[in-house]
Request: fold
Amino acid sequence: MKIAVDAMGGDYAPGVCIEGAAQALYDFPDIELVIVGHEKKLAYYLERYGIARHSRISVVHAETVVEMREPSTTSIRGKKDSSITVCAKLLKEGKVDAMASPGHTGAIVAATKVLVRTLPGVDRAALITSLPNINGRFLQIDAGANTDCTPLNLVQFALMAEVFASCLMNIESPRIGLLSVGGEAGKGNDLTKETYKILSQMPINFVGNVEGNTIFEGAADILVSDGFSGNVLLKTSEGLAKLLIHWLKEVLSRNPVRVTGAILAKNAFKELKMYGDASEFGGAPLLGLNGICIIGHGSSNPKAVRNAIRVAAECHNLKLNEKIVQRLQECQPFLQQLK
Amino acid sequence: MKIAVDAMGGDYAPGVCIEGAAQALYDFPDIELVIVGHEKKLAYYLERYGIARHSRISVVHAETVVEMREPSTTSIRGKKDSSITVCAKLLKEGKVDAMASPGHTGAIVAATKVLVRTLPGVDRAALITSLPNINGRFLQIDAGANTDCTPLNLVQFALMAEVFASCLMNIESPRIGLLSVGGEAGKGNDLTKETYKILSQMPINFVGNVEGNTIFEGAADILVSDGFSGNVLLKTSEGLAKLLIHWLKEVLSRNPVRVTGAILAKNAFKELKMYGDASEFGGAPLLGLNGICIIGHGSSNPKAVRNAIRVAAECHNLKLNEKIVQRLQECQPFLQQLK
Reply:
């Protein structure tokens, strides 16, 4: 199995990407990697992490990089030789089985949308991610690939996430919740009210509307939303967690007694940090694409890159995409109502 | 000045409401209160908090209560004798200058929409609330009154919040941000892209798109959004803060050394809790209504009820509504583009 790794993506590229790739090569003996990026810039790190002449590695040159501040369409208009676009082309042409990139999310979505296209029966690909809750973690779809959605999109997202959860996370009959502003059926906006109607008729474990607070209490295994409000939820969680950690440090450093207390409890704070660690999950798969694409966080560490590669391999090995197509076909009569 | 208090609203009614009303009577000698609720149920608490025969209090009977699980339209269809509906009628008829209720938000929005109507030039009333950030607090509008919005609604919300911030919070030229999924101008959904265009032309301190994470770093004084994504942000913050506190307790109680550390630092944790305390703010004013209406959190404590009454009085005294009408008139040429 061959996986293209965009080594130029993310805040700490290419070092972090290549270190993560080296870990993946070591840990997963079935995987071949195609490192995509500027050859000259990659050379140093490939040497440094001892994989320059590794038998399961090859390098494909990409002249440019889509910078985080550039618009999403850069990957398909301005910079057709960017590492993201080159990865998407390799995937399109079947030269690799999957791609992984911690680069510009919008640019990856745009490039794969145009080049790789969606699976039969899927209108839009959606980002699925994982967030912690009181019992463990829950899946969230769409985390930001589609800012404007129809009820049909949301129903497809729910089904794709259901397949992902049962296939990759071994959750049997995952509880699917719809992100809304109240628990009752009638609460929500036009989009969620229409989506609710269809989801409640379908042969899935639909638990109804779920709110931004109850989801952290474990109200559902999968939280379905449009990419705008899903992204708001994701970034609000990030921002508030940072703020609370900042406050905690502030109040604990205010006098010597508290500092002593904090030193005694320091392992507790280390554990607390681990609860929120997303690097185990690795990256957000872009579900519904006619190919496998995992998007990592811009601030991915080597472990996150390694795990994004692992998730890509798992999606391929477990035939995730075939199962998505099959599940959508089974549910065609329900989806038809929305067309 | 007369303020109607819905004593039947919220999780701990009517005790908490009447205790809060008693505090307000004591603290604000200019305020007269009209306590609305089931007379027999109120009597015990009015005696208990020593205000049964207070010279600045009167009681208006309301036979029923809109329960939290009931639909929003209950206040204008099923239960026209509910405490919320009675308050809204008193406000409509000019028998009170303002109302405050920690009851069913949707039901209050519906009742005031039908009975009290909006100010001249305002299409929709919106809930404004306050959340903590690294520097202090920021205002958020709409916190959940309107689940589907137009760009015109959002621009009006921005202007109403601007008046509120300068008038009640003494923030001169408040920085107005638009909730979106990326900082750049082109990022967002159809609604925010269109709203961005207008806001960026207007004579306001518009700081552009703000994300769910950067808002907690102090990116803006006012965060404008539709009521759906605004409510997602609000409830996600609540839910995640609860989860982090839960985790903190868990990791700190795991062994005797940590417990000792936690005891030494216990005042730090008390302070941490205060950072998130919303009872100082009191309640969320429903801006744009042709009357003053403050909606408290369902779990309001007496201090929050007292402060909701305080905010209602301030809005009245500072002629907030007159100033909103005036500001919207000044900006008419910009709003006209969206009609």
User: Anything to note?
Assistant: The domain at 131-277 of chain A is CATH 3.40.718.10 (Isopropylmalate Dehydrogenase). The radius of gyration of chain A is 21 Å. The longest helix of chain A spans residues 227-252. The longest strand of chain A covers residues 126-132.
